[in-house]
Specification:
The chain has 610 residues and is α/β, with parallel strands linked by helices. The protein is 50% helix and 18% strand. The strands form five sheets. The chain has a five-stranded antiparallel β-sheet with strand order 5-2-1-7-6, with helices on both faces. Strands 9-11-12-14-13 form a five-stranded mixed β-sheet, covered by helices on one side. β15, α11 and β16 form a beta-alpha-beta unit. Its EC number is 2.7.13.3.
């Protein structure tokens, strides 16, 4: 049976009974409605099927859905007595002016006109890319009959509106009867419902597809990780067996021939055994360090590090390897850089990893270490004039178990874990690792560490302070018992810290602050005398070496002043030779603590005298 695709015509012939004509007309109308909706549903289902089976499409599925709705609704509503144009306007979030993005083909040469009565009879032409105001479509929705219907918002908040412009082809014809108007209204409302439901289903399909892509990407990453671990195990096995073979082989030769220290050949055997053992130890340490970091079990001992001394010691360890390749070593440290709160062993490990790599990948020229400050960070830059690293290799450099080829060396020793460990150690310190490199122009690796304790460093100091708080409380109880016996003990928690080194001052301020003390920090003698005129501290912590005065001379001046002579003073200094303690006590301090500071001991001393 042939189905009608346009609005059914009114039957003007009066050759049958009115009841029969009414029934036939009603059936035709219902057939037209069901046929139009079925055709729309089939096309929308085809669109959803296409979207679910094709991961990439030339045209967005939302656009396909909107165009299907516009075309089929236009086809259904157009008849010999009615002309119409159907369009969809889209409004971006928070925008009051939208754009007509989809329009059906108009049966006439001119675009149909919409009248909006709320804005003084404004007339809008329904054409593609035409601008339209939000208040106009709202008014068209309220008009009788309506000419605009809201659609569901998409996931990005874009709001769609279905717009229909109609016009009679013959102005002398009578208007459509009420039943056909009702039928037309039903078709439009059902079309809006089908469109909204299809868009919701499309959103669900796209969500499933995104989840599927994520799973596929995750599976690929697992496969890649598994492959890298297999490569790592194979490489590690080779790297471990190689020095072990040397150790076992040359030990066997020495045992078989009998060790004779005066033989040059035997001395060479021992050097090979020692070198192989050191290489094996370094390899095992890298593997263990990475395992501890990944398991979050890396033990870090925070301390105040003398940066210039540590850097010179590190370069001394690299000096021999650099000399063997004819490379020059350079060290540059800003003169105002002194101390840093860090784990000295791990900082040394990070610098050695990068310096050994620089020497390894450099055949001619120089390798250097430059230490500078930038904002609130200390920058350790290890540079070289070596072969450089290509951009594609830079992307692989910090992946666990990855190793790039070394054209500057005949062998690629190691397992490629050094840079991974270095990067993660820098992050444990609250910093980061940066890389700048150009092929045949050398490389620059920069470790950035915060000058002030932050992140895990700060957390570790606070945890230590919390553990030491019990000792401090015990000492406070001891002080209370002394007070009962008649000794004058200050109950104030105010501490004046005279320290010119930022790292040391910040470390003590944080630690003592967690123990409940109010720490005021000053950097020199002038600031000390200024702040003493404004407060009466319970205890003074003073560095022996200050930029504008000798700390012990300041102590003597304090003791000669009746206002300050009873305030307990603790000297902290790098003086640690025999007799230094007695010198400090003779100057008038109550106690003495040497650097690097033992925080628990410091807390005990402050609790004892405050």
């Amino acid at each position: 049976m042939q189905q009608s695709s346009s609005l059914p015509e009114q039957n003007s012939q009066i050759d049958k009974t009115p009841a029969l004509l009414t029934t036939i007309q009603h059936l035709r109308e219902q057939l037209w409605l069901e046929s139009s909706l079925n055709q729309l549903q089939c096309r929308l289902n085809d669109c959803l099927l296409s979207a679910s089976t094709q991961m990439s499409q030339t045209r967005p599925p939302e656009a396909e859905i909107f165009q299907i709705v516009v075309n089929l609704l236009h086809k259904a509503l157009s008849g010999s007595r009615v002309q119409c144009a159907v369009g969809i306007a889209l409004f971006q979030p928070q925008e009051t002016v939208g754009q007509v993005c989809y329009v059906s083909a108009s049966p006439s040469s001119q675009t149909l006109t919409l009248e909006v009565r709320s804005t003084k009879g404004t007339k809008l032409r329904l054409r593609l890319h035409a601008a339209i105001r939000f208040e106009d479509v709202q008014q068209m929705e309220r008009q009788k009959p309506a000419s605009a219907w809201p659609l569901v918002e998409d996931s990005s908040g874009v709001k769609g509106w279905l717009i229909i412009a109609t016009a009679n082809s013959n102005s002398n014809c009578e208007p459509l009867n009420p039943s056909l108007n009702e039928l037309r209204s039903q078709l439009i409302n059902k079309t809006v419902e089908y469109c909204d439901r299809t868009l919701a289903q499309l959103k669900q399909i796209q969500s499933w597809q995104q989840h599927s892509e994520q799973l596929a990407s995750f599976n690929q990453e697992l496969e890649r990780t598994n492959q890298l671990k297999n490569q790592f195990l194979a490489n590690t096995s080779h790297e471990i067996r190689t020095p072990l073979s040397s150790i076992i082989g040359f030990t066997h030769l020495l045992l078989a021939q009998g060790y004779e220290p005066e033989k040059q050949r035997h001395q060479e055997y021992l050097h090979i055994i020692q070198s192989s053992g050191k290489h094996l130890l370094g390899l095992i340490n890298d593997i263990l360090d990475l395992s501890k970091i990944e398991a979050n079990q890396m033990e870090v001992q925070w301390d105040v590090v003398d940066v210039p001394i540590l850097c010179r010691n590190v370069l001394a360890l690299v000096k021999e390897k650099a000399a063997n390749k004819g490379l020059k070593l350079r060290l540059e440290i800003d003169p105002d850089i002194k101390n840093l709160v860090a784990d000295p062993l791990r900082l040394k490990q990070m610098l050695l990893n990068l310096l050994f790599n620089a020497v390894k990948f450099t055949n001619l020229g120089s390798v250097g270490l430059r230490v500078t400050t930038q904002d609130l960070y200390l920058r350790f830059t290890i540079w070289d004039t070596g072969i450089g690293i290509s951009p594609e290799n830079q992307a692989l450099l910090f992946r666990p178990y990855s190793q790039i080829a070394n054209s500057a060396s005949s062998s690629n020793e190691g397992t490629g874990l050094g840079l991974v460990v270095t990067k993660q150690l820098a992050e444990i310190h609250g910093g980061s690792l940066e890389l700048e490199s150009e092929v045949n122009r050398g490389s620059c690796f920069t470790i950035l560490l915060p000058l002030k304790p932050t992140g895990k460093v700060l957390e570790a100091i606070e945890v230590k302070a919390a553990k030491d708080l019990e000792i401090s409380q015990d000492l406070n109880n001891y002080s209370a018992s002394l007070a009962e016996s008649g000794d004058v003990i200050s109950s104030s928690k105010q501490v004046l810290l005279v320290e010119d080194d930022l790292a040391n001052a910040e470390l003590m301020r944080i630690y003592l602050g967690r123990l409940g003390y109010q720490v005021t920090c000053v950097k020199n003698a002038f600031e000390m005398w200024t702040i003493l005129s404004q407060m009466q501290p319970a205890i003074i912590l003073i560095d022996v070496s200050l930029p504008d005065a000798n700390g012990l001379n300041l102590v003597q001046q304090l003791r000669e002043n009746s206002q300050y002579q009873n305030i307990p003073i603790i000297a902290q200094t790098a003086m640690a030779m025999k007799g230094d303690r007695e010198t400090c006590l003779a100057a008038g301090v109550n106690d003495y603590i040497s650097k690097p500071l033992d925080l628990q001991l410091l807390g005990s001393m402050v609790a004892k005298y405050s």
